[in-house]
Amino acid sequence: MIRQHTKYISLLLACCASGALANENLIAPPMQAAGITQTSVEENGPAYSLTTGWTSKYVTEGIDCIPGSSIWEVAPSVAYKNWTLSAWYASGVSQSYEELDLVLSYTFKNGDWTFTPWYEHQIYFTPDYNVANPAFTVGYALNDWLTVGADAQWKIEHQVMEGYYDLFIQATWTPIENLTITPLVRFGYNSGYNLSAGDGANCIDYSMKATYALTDNLSVSALIYYTQAATVLRRANLGNEFVYGAYINLNF
Predict the structure, then answer these.
(1) Which whole number is the average pLDDT over 185-212?
(2) What is the pLDDT at residue 39?
(3) What is the rounded distance in angstroms from the CA atom of residue 252 to the CA atom of residue 182?
(4) Count of domains in the chain?
(5) Which end of the chain, N or C, is surrounded by fewer C-beta atoms within 10 Å?
(6) Of all residues in the chain, what percent are helix, strand and coil, respectively (each to 5)?
(7) Would the pTM count as exceeding 0.90?
(8) 6-34 as b/e: b if 16+ CB within 10 A
(9) Half-sphere exposure of 105 (CA within 13 A, CB side)
(10) What is the extent of the structural domain holding 33?
(11) Is residue 183 part of a domain?
């Protein structure tokens, strides 16, 4: 459930915080846990990262997937040149829920444009089933602190291809040394992906994340995130969720 939920929002914000979006025009796909910081990849070897944390709700496509429960999260990642391989594991705190997402992505640039095709395989343990999600992310750096972009992702399930599409704008701001504030606004359109609502305007997400670097390899993050129901979620009496979380990020 990667589309519009906390994990996705946090990843994009974390990339901003690390300079990947704002300074290197790198758009990373939603493949890591909330708060993860993508490390720069040196030519002589891969870069490793690990994030663990807690999020008050598991919200995806504007919907609370585990009502009444928060989640614990852990996400290892390895990046080498243009490739990134990542995993995201989540477990419900007050309700039984387990999910493991595996993602492989490739990122390439052309001037101020960045393109990232990626594939995600979702493994659900409660209930037990798997979902394949091919996707594509494109971003354009307007300047060194502001990026706009779009995502397209499809869920291949029951031999049917269901889509979810969104547009986003994100910024990065460093008010003091070692502290980075990264807001993001995202509009999502449902095309069969979200079975709880019809096709059409789904939700608008507003996110803000603060990341403080304690050392070169260790940082802590806090996230606040509100998803506002648009047309199809309002009709279904869903959405309008407020989420917050805290995370520890390690780079190797």
Answers:
(1) 93
(2) 43
(3) 23
(4) 1
(5) C
(6) 5, 60, 35
(7) no
(8) bbbbbbbbbbbbbbbbbebbbbbbbbbbb
(9) 30
(10) 6-251
(11) yes
